[in-house]
Structures are given as C-alpha cells and as structure tokens.
C-alpha cells in the first residue's frame, strides 16, 4: 500500500520549540518498517502544494501572511506553534501527500499519509497545530479536477473537525461527519453535516456501537465516490488531550470497521493520521501503527 512520507515531515528538521507534537512522524515510519507492516518501496515522497492549489481552499490574505511571515501574535498563538517558514513548507508537502493518497487509493483501495489530518485549519487562519487543511485541500482538488462528485469526510479524531466543517458548510458535494468528544477542544464547535458529540469516558462498547449504526447508513444515503478518513488515535484513554476511555484494541476495531465499509462499497479511502498525544510516545506510535495494520488486513 502506498504511504505518503517525506524527510520534511520529521520534527528534527524544525527549530527548538516547534517539535511538539512532531516526534511521532519520525518514529512511525521506523516502526512500520520494523514490524514488516510495509516496506521501503511503499513510501512515496509527496510534492508541495502549488499556490493555485492553496488558493482553491485558503484565502489570498492568509496565504500572503504565511508567505511573508506576517501573522499577528494572536494568529501565531492560535496555531500552537511559534511561526517558522519550515512549518509552511512542511504543511505544503503534507497536504499534497493527502491529495496524492486519494489518487493512489483510486487504484489500490486505500492509501495513508504518515501525517495530515489538519482539520482545525480554516480558509483564513490556522488553529490547533494546523496550518493548511489537508483533507479540504485534497477534496477541493478532486472536485476541481472533476474526478469525484460526492466526497465524504469521516473524521474520528477526538476533536471536532471545525475547520473542515466550516469550509464545507455550503458545499453539497462534500458530506462532513465528525464523531468527537463533546466537551473538548474546540470550545466553539462548527456545524458538520453530522456531528456526534460523545460524553467524557466513552468506552469501546459505546463508541463502536454508535459507529456501527451510523457509518453504513451515511454511506448508503450519500453514496460517496471517495472517503477521506481522519484516523486520530487521541480517542484512547492514555491520551492527555482526549478525555475518552477507549482502549488501543477498540481504536483498532474502529479502523477495521471503516476500512471494511469502504471496501464493501468499493469506495477509495485516503487516510490522514490526525491526533495522538499520549504521555508515552510508544503508546502513540503503537496506536497509529494499528491503523496501518488494519488497512493491510482488509486490503492486502
């Protein structure tokens, strides 16, 4: 299976103070190779977004601020990172990686991006460790290139995909589904086509029961030609930003089900990793690795 990864994803290319939560992007590829989940041949190095592609999703004013490093202090604070041009460069490659994953998924059924899932970025601003909204950028490009007419975003990160929801608020060709912890960031939620807000300490049984009832119905009703899956592992109980009570095995079963549904209905699925902030880096990497194992089990 094709996996988007570039050396520019690595946290150690960024200055001190920019590295949280970057470390997993270096360790995850190593773990996937170590466990034999993928081989070196499966990796591809994504290109950078062009200016034209950026401007089909983000505003010209925001892009100009990123190019010139002229974000205000408040805007920088909202991104979660001290501003640095390497973050912009990195974001352009990550977002294009998700787009390239979509095209690979059209051939292979599934393709995954080692990074991505930057669903808090709005058209005119960044938020929550997100500079460009990679799923929105990729979906907009598929619509622009007329290779898909109906796209579904399945966002199972613990945090609502607020930027994604807002950008696609009036876009009938994209169905946004966000299942997240209700009393968690962002405090001000946007309106997805379907939001399911979960209570704190939601367990595997509760979570999976809701997903099993909901996703097949949505797929049947909307009949998407492409699914973008935000597979955040910040739903697990060990996550310091999560507030849910899922196990790593429950998260794995979640991913298996999404992939099973996509394959059953012959829908290509492009996967972005999303959040993962457990106290132990090994817990984060292991949970993300399970997403790749689930994809391999269903498709290969």
UniProtKB/TrEMBL annotation:
Per the record, the similarity remark reads: Belongs to the histone deacetylase family.
Q: Which residues form the Histone deacetylase domain?
A: 18-290
User: Could you identify this protein by its name?
Assistant: Histone deacetylase
Coiled-coil residues are none
The organism encoding this protein is Reichenbachiella ulvae
User: What UniProt keywords apply to this chain's record, in alphabetical order?
Assistant: Hydrolase
The family database entries (InterPro entries) matched by this protein are listed as: HDAC_classIV, HDACs, His_deacetylse_dom, His_deacetylse_dom_sf, Ureohydrolase_dom_sf
Write down the PANTHER family for this protein, in alphabetical order: HISTONE DEACETYLASE 12 (PTHR10625:SF19), HISTONE DEACETYLASE HDAC1-RELATED (PTHR10625)
Q: What's one Pfam family here?
A: Hist_deacetyl
């Amino acid at each position: 299976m094709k996996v988007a990864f570039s050396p520019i994803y690595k946290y150690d290319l960024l200055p001190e103070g920019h590295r949280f939560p970057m470390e997993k992007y270096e360790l995850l590829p190593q773990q996937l190779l170590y466990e034999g989940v993928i081989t070196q041949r499966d990796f591809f190095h994504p290109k950078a977004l062009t200016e034209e592609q950026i401007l089909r999703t983000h505003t010209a004013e925001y892009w100009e601020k990123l190019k010139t490093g002229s974000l205000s202090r408040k805007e920088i604070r909202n991104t979660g990172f001290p501003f640095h041009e390497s973050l912009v460069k990195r974001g352009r490659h990550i977002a294009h990686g998700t787009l390239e994953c979509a095209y690979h998924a059209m051939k292979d059924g599934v393709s995954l991006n080692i990074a991505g899932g930057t669903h808090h970025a709005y058209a005119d601003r960044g938020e929550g460790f997100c500079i460009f909204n990679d799923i929105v950028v990729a979906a907009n490009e598929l619509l622009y290139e007329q290779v898909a007419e109906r796209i579904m975003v399945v966002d199972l990160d613990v945090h609502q995909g607020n930027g994604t929801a807002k950008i696609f608020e009036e876009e009938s060709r994209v169905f946004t589904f966000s299942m997240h912890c209700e009393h968690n960031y962002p405090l001000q939620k946007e309106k997805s086509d379907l939001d399911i807000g979960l209570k704190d300490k939601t367990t595997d049984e509760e979570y999976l029961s809701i997903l099993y009832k909901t996703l097949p119905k949505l797929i049947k009703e909307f009949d998407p030609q492409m699914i973008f899956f935000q597979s955040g592992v910040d739903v697990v109980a060990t996550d310091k930003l999560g507030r849910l009570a899922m196990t790593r095995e429950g998260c794995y079963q979640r991913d298996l089900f999404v992939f099973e549904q996509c394959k059953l209905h012959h829908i290509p699925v492009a996967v972005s990793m999303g959040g993962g902030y457990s106290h132990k880096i090994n817990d984060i990497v292991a949970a993300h690795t399970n997403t790749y194992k689930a994809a391999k089990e269903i498709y290969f």
